[in-house]
Amino acid sequence: MQRILIDTDPGVDDAFAIFLAMRSPELHVEAITTVCGNVSVTQATQNLLTILGVLDLNTFPIIAEGEAEPLVKPLVMATHVHGDDGLGNVSQLRNTDGSPLYPQANTTISSVSGVDLILEMAARYPDELTIIALGPLTNIAKAIRKDAEKMQRLQKIVLMGGAFEAYGNVTTTAEFNIFVDPHAAHEVFQFDVPIHIVPLDATHQVILTGERLHAEIDKREGTISHFLKDATQACMEFYREHVGFWGFHIHDALPIGILTRPDYFESVLAHVQVETEGTLTCGMTVADLRPERQHRDPNANVYLKVAVEAFLDYFFERLQ
Ligand code: RIB
Ligand code: CA
């Protein structure tokens, strides 16, 4: 059993990742921290409560709200992709009696900050805790700044972010999580703990079409199925109009798979840097991925290949 802390900016694909993690017996989700990104950090926290409410849990991870702004750059959000509330506007859906169709989980938000909860968990589980970072790396970077010694005791960080031999999804060169806070990414990639990066090179291989999603949902009854259909409408329409297919990439589910189905993935060692200043390249992740360069001062494992069908089958089996 692996102890994990999820740092997230939910976000529709973050919701898929959280469902998958909470349904993975190999993982114990000790805590979840929210961060600004797809939406404001306050909305991200409300969305997290909605997501956990769908799961009908008896016990909950510790939850804390993280940073509201990136280290240096002004916040850029992605509500045009994920819907105004970041979850396909499901927060607006009501039953006939006016009650929320997806009521929030009956749990509390910790009084400590996201950064302090990360440090508390790192200290409580030395050498055992994996951070799964699914949004901009602001909370992680601030935790390192605040107490690097505690953060040194992390077992590893597995993050969704970057683009190496793939184009970016915000600019030609930059992926969203890194683009929003390149200074935080720079500090995290420089930090001396094992870093596992799942970039667009991998996540763009896993295309969840609307047809596949609806076919899988229609096999099952239950709140999760209805939620997945409602929460994904907005982003799948965005994809239909701007990306060229009806469906979307379940980016954030892949870092969970790295822990539970590592055999579905292939990675290379690389020395990864982040551009923090460029006009055209700010937020670009830079690494020489040529096999003969793998052992030149590597600071990360970069995942470039996924067993797509196996991963999708596994994903839907777990969402039973
Ligand atoms: O580029 C995709 C990443 O940015 C995902 O984590 C998505 O949720 C957004 O945060
Ligand atoms: Ca995310």
Topology diagram in text:
Layout lengths: L1 E7 L3 H11 L4 E8 L6 H14 L7 E4 L13 H4 L31 H11 L4 E5 L4 H9 L1 H5 L3 E5 L15 H5 L1 H9 L4 E4 L1 H4 L3 E3 H9 L4 H20 L4 E3 L3 H8 L4 E6 L2 E2 L10 E2 L13 E7 L1 H11 L2
Parallel strand pairs: 1-2, 1-4, 2-3, 4-5, 5-6, 6-12
Antiparallel strand pairs: 7-8, 9-12, 10-11
Description:
- The protein is an alpha/beta fold and 320 residues long.
- Helix content is 38%, strand content 18%.
- The protein has a single domain (2-319), classed as Alpha-Beta Complex (Inosine-uridine Nucleoside N-ribohydrolase, Chain A).
- It starts with a strand and ends with a helix.
- The chain has 13 helices and 12 strands.
- It has helices spanning 12-22, 41-54, 79-82, 114-124, 138-146, 148-152, 176-180, 182-190, 200-203, 210-218, 223-242, 253-260, 308-318; strands at residues 2-8, 27-34, 62-65, 129-133, 156-160, 195-198, 207-209, 247-249, 265-270, 273-274, 285-286, 300-306.
- Bound molecules: alpha-D-ribofuranose and calcium ion (CA).
- The site of calcium ion has 8 residues, from loops.
Fold-level CATH name: Inosine-uridine Nucleoside N-ribohydrolase, Chain A
Find the count of extended strands (DSSP E, 2+ residues): 12
Percentage of residues in strands: 15-25%
Count of DSSP H/I helices: 13
Which whole number gives the mean pLDDT? 96
CATH class annotation? Alpha Beta
Global geometry: globular
Radius of gyration in whole Å, from Cα? Answer: 18 Å
The CATH homologous superfamily: Ribonucleoside hydrolase-like
Structural class, by secondary structure, is alpha/beta
State the helicity in percent bands.
Answer: 25-40%
